[in-house]
Amino acid sequence: MSIVKINVLTVPAEQREVLEQRFASRAGAVEGSDGFEWFELLRPVEGTDQYLVYTRWRSEEDFQAWMEGPMKAAHQGGGGGAGAGGAGERPKPAASASTVWSFEVVQQAGPKAGAGAEADADR
Predict the structure, then answer these.
(1) DSSP states of 68-94 as a string?
(2) CA angle 8-77-99, nearest 5°?
(3) Which candidate in 9, 94, 100, 106 could, as Cys together with 19 as Cys, close a disulfide (CB 3.0–4.6 Å)?
């Protein structure tokens, strides 16, 4: 079964829009990765300043390959080689803290076949 990684990001209120814009601008960055199954950015509604970044992967190995390859490259600030003067150019992180939770999927369910179609037909 799949594995789920949830990155818990503590984001001050004044940085929420920045975080959401950064995720919007990276759209498509993970979707082509081998073993990638799902992504969601979850905005807190009340009682917390923590966003959840939910990703689902075919295996731990697929997740680690993405972490060591495309994700690492994306977070290193781009194209120049080491020492290419990029140190001062990286934007300040929008989150003040980050924790990664890991889970194995042991049960899952989706809508029953036709359930959505019936609801849509009633509208």
Answers:
(1) IIIIHHHHTTSSS-TTSS-TTTSPPPS
(2) 15
(3) 94
Report CA dihedral (22, 25, 61, 107) to the nearest 10 degrees: 80
Distance, CA of 106 to CA of 34 (rounded, Å): 21
Place of tokens 């966003």: 51
- Output 107-112 pairs: Cβ under 8 A, ≥24 positions apart: 108/1
Block residue for tokens 């989150």: 95
As a residue count, the chain comes to 123
| CA-to-CA separations, 95 to 2, 34, 51, in angstroms, rounded | 27, 27, 9
pLDDT, tens digit only, all 123 positions of the chain? 899 999 999 999 999 999 999 999 886 778 989 999 999 999 999 999 999 999 999 999 999 999 888 777 776 654 433 333 445 566 788 998 999 999 999 999 999 988 665 555 555
5 CA to centre of own chain: 8
